[in-house]
Recover the amino acids of this structure.
């Protein structure tokens, strides 16, 4: 609520209590003795307009609806806060700006109460927010917007406040980044500075340690092979490239220097950037227009089944699918027994009047599924499915319970080109849903899904741990499998690295490690 009010944008609330409900407008907030109050406009000629400590509003005790980010023009998220001196007094006229890297996205000034609101910002974006009002000094901060959608957490950010500080060295921020294996990813290094020495000097960014499973490059200076390394031209972007078969977390360290002298300036702390390297490919079916529905989690009945047709232009070509995710809005009321996902190719583009398709399925996943949580929920297949990228893909979801509870709800979309789903439910009288072959009922919508496939690449000889170098983790894995043979519990196929691949973990395999000891994927 408060980011909207900081921006001068009232909100509509739906309140209820005592058997009654009402729509009201929140148009301000403030504090009294440390308690947060909101000013509520009831209508009714102002007879009940007052300051209330939410969620209690007069005789109403529940806020069931909040309509926010209502504007006459434009859209986007809000970052808001307050600028004060060291004693907490508001500073009017302070300049507040937000940046992505070195690019200023927006700049405004605080009002008489020291409040600012940066509006219309991009969703799911991290900004560096800074304040300036000579002779005061302020530390920049990072703020990440979310994605304001119906039934989801708001994407606005409130309380990015600034209080004047004394001069000191910069603060380097630990960072999180994502990269696809084998692909260069630009990573911004972030640090906060008090803008002193005055006038502010430009920060220098220094790489202090290199990643273990990838490389770093300076866009202005080339490959970084030794540390410490100062980025050229006050740059603070590096290019990270993970080796093609690595999947996991990698990291490197950096610090910032403002050119001052300690303790008023100089070098910052050393921060760590953790890079989550992913060797998967994601195909997401999630059109902009969507709603929610109780399939495939129709758990208000014992059993349920839905099969849906996805077209090739929605699936990004041929791939070996190793997992599937559903976007869950509300979890089912009970565990799903015999939760089963099946797939097959089909030339059907939609369903006419007919029956469930009974044969030709590949069971890719089956198990007892706990209630789980909302958001993208992933099911890692026991049997991967090789999709040819040419035909339509038919996906079948079902479960077989012995009692009913409340429905789960998933996000679904209707492409508007026919009846693409076929479904039914029962309370045990129709037998195992996997064997249903009669007429159910039709729908145009499809569950929103994420298909996951794995990038395949051969590891360097001896890299049993697949961390892109031959080192102690590889020795540990071979030692754990020492003298084991194929078929025994300790045996691991990836440890059988000798050229003969003889089904035994022995000295021949350790010889491969010795020959390639300390080699890396990036070695010449």
């Amino acid at each position: 609520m408060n980011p909207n009010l900081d921006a001068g944008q009232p909100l509509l609330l739906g309140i209820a209590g005592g058997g009654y409900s009402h729509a009201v407008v929140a148009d301000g907030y403030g504090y009294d003795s440390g308690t947060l109050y909101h000013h509520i406009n009831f209508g009714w000629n102002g007879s009940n307009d007052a300051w209330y400590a939410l969620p209690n509003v007069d005789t109403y005790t529940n806020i069931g609806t909040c309509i926010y980010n209502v504007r006459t023009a434009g859209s986007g998220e809000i970052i808001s806060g307050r600028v004060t001196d060291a004693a907490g007094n508001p500073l009017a006229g302070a300049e507040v700006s937000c940046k992505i890297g070195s690019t200023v996205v927006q700049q405004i000034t605080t009002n008489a109460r020291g409040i600012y609101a940066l509006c219309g910002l991009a969703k799911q974006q991290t900004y560096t927010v800074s304040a300036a009002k000579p002779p005061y000094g302020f530390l920049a901060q990072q703020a990440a917007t979310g994605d304001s959608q119906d039934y989801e957490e708001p994407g606005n950010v409130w309380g990015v406040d600034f209080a004047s500080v004394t001069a000191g060295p910069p603060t380097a921020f630990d960072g999180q980044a994502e990269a696809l294996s084998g692909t260069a990813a630009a990573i911004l290094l972030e640090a906060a500075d008090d803008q002193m020495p005055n006038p502010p000097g430009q920060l220098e960014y220094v790489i202090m340690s290199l990643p273990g499973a990838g490389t770093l490059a300076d866009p202005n200076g080339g490959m970084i092979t030794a540390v410490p390394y100062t980025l050229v031209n006050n740059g603070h972007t590096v290019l990270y490239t993970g080796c093609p078969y690595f999947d996991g977390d990698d990291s490197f360290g950096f610090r910032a220097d403002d050119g001052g002298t300690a303790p008023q300036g100089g070098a910052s702390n050393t921060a760590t950037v953790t890079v989550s390297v992913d060797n998967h490919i994601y195909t997401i079916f999630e059109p902009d227009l969507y709603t929610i529905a109780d399939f495939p989690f129709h758990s208000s009945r014992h059993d349920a089944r839905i099969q849906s047709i996805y077209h090739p232009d929605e699936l990004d070509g041929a791939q070996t699918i190793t997992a599937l995710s559903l976007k869950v809005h509300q979890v089912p009321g009970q565990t799903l027994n015999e939760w089963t996902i099946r797939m097959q190719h089909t030339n059907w583009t939609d369903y006419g009047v007919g029956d469930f398709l009974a044969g030709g399925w590949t069971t890719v996943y089956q198990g007892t599924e706990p209630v789980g949580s909302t958001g993208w929920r992933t099911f890692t297949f026991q049997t991967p499915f090789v999709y040819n990228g040419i035909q339509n893909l038919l996906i079948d979801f079902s479960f077989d319970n012995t009692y009913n509870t409340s429905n789960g709800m998933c996000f679904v979309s209707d492409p508007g080109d026919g009846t693409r789903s076929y479904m039914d439910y029962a309370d045990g009288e129709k037998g195992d849903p996997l064997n249903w072959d009669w007429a159910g009922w039709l729908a145009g919508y499809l569950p929103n899904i994420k298909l996951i496939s794995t990038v395949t690449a051969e590891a360097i000889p001896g890299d049993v741990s697949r961390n892109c170098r031959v080192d102690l983790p590889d020795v540990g894995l071979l030692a754990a499998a020492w003298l084991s043979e194929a078929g025994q519990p300790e045996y691991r196929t990836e440890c059988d690295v000798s050229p003969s691949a003889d089904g035994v973990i022995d000295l021949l395999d350790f010889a491969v490690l010795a020959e390639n000891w300390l080699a890396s994927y990036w070695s010449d």
